[in-house]
């Protein structure tokens, strides 16, 4: 093994970063019987998807260093600065990466160096931070916003489904109606929606008591309880839609939302978050709606609609498990842009 690979946390680990540590791995003085436990606990500090992204990021950097004849580990601060500069540029430029992607690459390089015992990592050096600040100021663009799915849009999507004809409703229509209504009324993230099990939605006299076991802002797994009340209209009632879906699919346990093939056969596996985005976009198109509908549309639409109806902000934040009022600014603007609008008083 070459000297770089011998100390490389990816190469030495068979293609994976060895430790998710904010510092070098605790090698000396650790009983052998605890080594695996320590590794597992440290890895559990970040999501598996984060580790896969870090792994890919480190491989990309190492390949670039090999091509340029530079050392990847430990990397000189000027090497990292040059790597960032080489992959920065306006959107659409061949080889240019999004600023958010470069930010994650910096995090991956920091973790790789810390795991190899390089502390402080070169990512913190002035040569790197000055270039990084310049990239952010020059190339950061506002992320493309998805179209908020408002109540009128949810109704249009459901009205476009064949749920009231003489024939029994298609299983996919029943699933998608329940999925849309639960996602919307619960202000759920896609990851939260697809992680739901049947047991996570018990019903009481007021509606569904939705249990979210873990989410993006709850990595410790404390969980959250969200109430989904009965709707005032039968076709758009989340509780009745959930009943109809589980009864038709014969669901008593396991994943709440599952794939269905073109023959109407129910899969055992839960839907992916990508599938949820595809369902929402497909249902919006079928209803004749225009806009960029994606997985976040229902969550954004919930907040926008709630603000438009004058729901107090603490209640909006509680239902959606939002932690920061700053995050709510764009939703508040969407929902209240016409409230006491000054331009309406100009006599135009």
Automatic annotation (TrEMBL):
Biological process (GO), any one: DNA integration
Domain Tyr recombinase: 141-345
GO molecular function per UniProt: DNA binding
Record-linked SUPFAM superfamilies: DNA breaking-rejoining enzymes, lambda integrase-like, N-terminal domain
Keyword DNA-binding: yes
Keywords tagged on the record: DNA recombination, DNA-binding
Pfam entry (one): Phage_integrase
Domain Core-binding (CB) span(s) in chain numbering: 32-117
Name of this protein: Site-specific recombinase XerD
